[in-house]
Amino acid sequence: MAIISSLLLQPLSVPTPTLQNNRNHRFRIGLTPPPRNSLRANHAPIGKPANLSKDYKLSWLQELKHAFQPQLSNQNLDADDEEDNEFFQELVDMQCVDNVRMLIVDAVQTAKAGHSGMPLGMAEVGYILYRHVMRYNPRNPKWFNRDRFVLSAGHGCLLQYICLHLAGFQSVQLEDLQRLCKLGSRTPGHPENVVTDGIEVTTAPLGKSVANAVGLALAEAHSAARFNKPDAVIVDHRTFCIMGDGCVMEGISHEAASLAAHWKLNKLTLIYDDNLNTIDGATSLAFSEDISARFKALGWNTITVDDTHNDMEAIKNALLSAFRETEKPTFIREGTSKAHHGTFDEKDVKKMRRKVNWSDREPFHVIPMIYREMQIQTEYGERMEKEWHSRLCYYQTKYPQEFVEFKILLDGGLLPGWESSLPKFPTSDPVDATQGYSEKCLNQLAKVLPGLIRGSADLATSNKAYLHGHEDFSQPNSPWGCNIRYGVREHAMAGISNGIALRGSGLIPFAATFLVFSDYMKNSIRLSALSHAGVIYIMTHDSIGLGEDGPTHQPAVEQLAGLRAVPRLLVFWPADGNETAGAYKVVVANRNVPSLIALSRQKVAANLEGTSRASVEIGGYIVSDNSEDKLPDIILIGTGSELCLCEESAKMLRVWFH
């Protein structure tokens, strides 16, 4: 008779302003013109433009004459006129946004697929973020202190792809825009961080990435509190997120937004594309909530921008307000016009081209000067990265001990020999629940893994998932704390943990709750696998042995079966302390896949006879066998807390058969 421990299963643009009192203007996809002084060029943080050189203006003049019917005169080229600088930059920004919109139309028309509404409606916002606000370096997309951008409304990914291309990211060439939604392309129908450099998180199911953005912002606040010094700030990036009507309807966005305000994540900016339109029709069919009032009640800094199409200055001022906010995250309600959500026919395309003076352009045309315009911001990002490296060198000299820890985290967070810290459980140890053995493993690992950060959904005591000797994460009291209290928000916990894991800062998040509540989290767990996010899910109370709470809290067969079916998710159900330690060795070592450890509340042996810590990574192995190389009469397969039942049953059966 053979007994097999089976604990792992891994299936493996707007119209032109007037010139010189000439009020004639064109429409930009049906919109009205902004006032003459409505825009300013800037770098992050947002401010007025530097003087524009005459050469710069001359390089743009021909394109602007083509786009805008009123003729620009030589007096518009006075490089010393500050108002003229702002006005000229306004025209440049408009022309750039027009080009972005026409690339959207061409890509959707070519692919005969894709979601065009959100990209068309938010073209100004996307352009402003990438041209005037965010710090990034296309030559080093993984620069640690870059600003993060998350597109929770992932169906609008075409807007981000175009911005990445124009900004100079090698991951999105013009040919990639022409292959939108094609199998194997670098421009899939929703953003995937493992496919396209410049994409921070994989987004698709609406609302999930609002939680991802909160996780990114939390990780920044935590790292900044741990490492920044008054004379050496090495962590100070911001997180920007665009969400749509569907995102705010999903409950996870509310859970995550509540936590963001509670944690005072002031470097998080959430931009709401409120276009009053969903797939079934107007949002009024099923939605009448005042979202700004909701976020204000949660504790956010709330701003309303009524019409970015006609006043890009308004969204810039809103973003400037977000930069100035020191205690609250910022919510910007951006009231875009209704936009088409499908593909276009030839008549639609011709009409749009005519309205923006684009009729004589070939499909996928990019004005050469737009690349140079976007390069202004990317060169700014390159300078910021060089300055950051200079600060880091100073930091290394002035604060060598802190630098060593920071460098360990940048390199992945694993010290050589960390495995030796895992406790050993001899057979003489008193019996305990596997969640108790897990607690011992976690607290030993916390001594050698500086990036270990714990989270639990109001069950830290029940899950035995608390890092003793560490403070709770809280702003402003203890943002360096390594224990995160999520409250009763399982889904947000999973989404936020994904953001923490994907920030690239060496933090190793684990999220703990009851196994039966994994159903709340399933979609975000699946996204962990798709995103290669190394989150560790700790799921306790694994069976009917949990106690008297009844079937609503007792996991049935479908929980583990469903979780084990998720590709790239490592699922462990250890039988004793020995296998629990073995499971932690595997999950910590595998930083690019999520893992789940199911643990018992009832007590089991510390070291069940025949179990093997080293064999855990195999996924299943023989615990005991008395068949003497013959075909066994009976094979008992057990896993988790059920393995001891198999062992006792085998002993009884061997006596009876003997």
TrEMBL record:
Keywords: Calcium, Magnesium, Metal-binding, Thiamine pyrophosphate, Transferase. Signal peptide: none annotated. The lineage of its organism: Eukaryota, Viridiplantae, Streptophyta, Embryophyta, Tracheophyta. It catalyses: D-sedoheptulose 7-phosphate + D-glyceraldehyde 3-phosphate = aldehydo-D-ribose 5-phosphate + D-xylulose 5-phosphate. InterPro entries: THDP-binding (IPR029061), Transketo_C/PFOR_II (IPR009014), Transketolase-like_Pyr-bd (IPR005475), Transketolase_fam (IPR033247), Transketolase_N (IPR005474). This is transketolase. Residues 432-606 form the Transketolase-like pyrimidine-binding domain. CDD domains: TPP_PYR_DXS_TK_like, TPP_TK. Homodimer. It is an enzyme of class 2 (transferase). Pfam families: Transket_pyr (PF02779), Transketolase_N (PF00456). Its EC number is 2.2.1.1. It comes from the Eukaryota. The keyword Magnesium applies. Its cofactor is Co(2+); Mg(2+); thiamine diphosphate; Mn(2+). Belongs to the transketolase family. It comes from Vitis vinifera (Grape). One of its GO terms (molecular function) is transketolase activity. The keyword Iron does not apply.
